[in-house]
Design goal:
Length: about 325
């Protein structure tokens, strides 16, 4: 089936919007703006948030504190229903969950912009689904777009839980991986509809296995990176400043760093083996992206973890994830 070029372009645009949500979410985290809006989906009960605390009632902390308690209780009840009693108890007994922050206009609007990007990306995924459903009606695409829409809806709900639990670290990790899942499905939809992405690239079985292995290690690296980020959160709560983070990291940080060099070595080998094969430029891009990613990692490790570099680190990791995933979609093994 031939797809309208505007439909293909809109899917690429939707992918870009999803990536913008990832970037915005990272910026929210490094600036500590996650609780800039204590409620969800509105912000301080408004669709357009306030710019001054004078626009809020004097007891706004108590008001949103009560709402938080109710939402946390509902979430914990859900966890208990599915057998996660220990996790529910841990959340209930965590005093940080119920801590209300004072209004900060900068943090409020940073979080608000993040939500705007989420709104745009969500509408993009919704329009892709409706476009497929009413014009193309191809079963596989309808299912994929429908699943992506459902996951995005769950992601939006879970975003409210992240806020309600006052940014409990593991909830942020799940939130990010749901975003990666949405990216993966969107990439596969693009693979099916874009003429440039439908062309298979023949490679040997060994080469394909190596690319798949690199992708899995990269995915694992992103998980380890979230654990490093959680360590940062704990160090910050312990009163340890940015200058002391790198000296207080545990084994996960060193494993994460070591595997980064392993991935670089493997991708360098792939790049050298197939540097003259134009069809494998997608892997050439992975070499460039990973090099930049590692440079940002060096800056993070040795220069007091500059905030914007943290955002760049996550961005390039997410893009590398997408490039390698698309490569696994397009590579086709031969008999050799």
């Amino acid at each position: 089936m031939k797809f309208n070029k505007w439909f293909v372009r809109f899917n690429w645009l939707t992918l870009v919007l999803i990536y913008l949500v990832v970037i915005a979410g990272s910026f929210v985290r490094i600036t500590g703006s996650g609780m800039g809006c204590p409620d969800w989906p509105k912000c301080f009960g408004q669709w357009v948030p306030p710019t001054s605390s004078e626009e809020l009632p004097e007891d706004y902390k108590a008001i949103y504190g009560e709402k938080r308690v109710k939402k946390v209780e509902k979430f914990c009840h859900l966890l208990e229903t599915v057998g996660l009693d220990a996790t529910a108890k841990k959340i209930k007994n965590n005093p940080d969950v119920y801590r209300e922050e004072a209004f900060n206009a900068s943090k409020t609007w940073t979080e608000y912009v993040n939500r705007l990007f989420g709104f745009l990306a969500g509408n993009g995924v919704l329009l892709v689904f409706l476009w497929i459903l009413f014009k193309y009606r191809q079963r596989k695409l309808v299912i994929l777009a429908g699943i992506n829409l459902i996951i995005l809806g769950f992601q939006a709900w879970f975003g409210s839980i992240v806020v309600a639990t006052n940014l409990v670290p593991w909830t942020i990790t799940i939130h990010m991986f749901l975003a990666l899942l949405i990216i993966g499905i969107q990439l596969y939809i693009i693979r099916l509809i874009s003429p440039s992405q439908q062309k298979d690239i023949p490679v040997s079985r060994g080469f394909y296995v190596l690319v798949l292995f690199i992708f899995l290690v990269t995915f694992s690296q992103m998980f380890l990176g979230t654990q490093v980020r959680e360590e940062i959160d704990y160090l910050r709560k312990a009163g340890i400043g940015r200058e002391g983070w790198s000296e207080n990291f545990g084994a996960i940080f060193f494993i994460h760093r070591s595997f980064s060099w392993l991935v670089l070595a493997l991708i360098t080998a792939l790049f050298w083996m197939k540097r003259k094969v134009k069809a494998l430029r997608i892997l050439h891009w992975s070499f460039i992206i990973l090099t930049i990613e590692l440079l940002s990692g060096v800056l993070l490790a040795h220069f007091k973890m500059p905030g914007l570099v943290q955002t760049a680190h996550l961005l390039f990791a997410s893009v590398l994830f997408g490039v390698l995933l698309m490569a696994t979609f397009r590579l086709k093994t031969t008999s050799k």
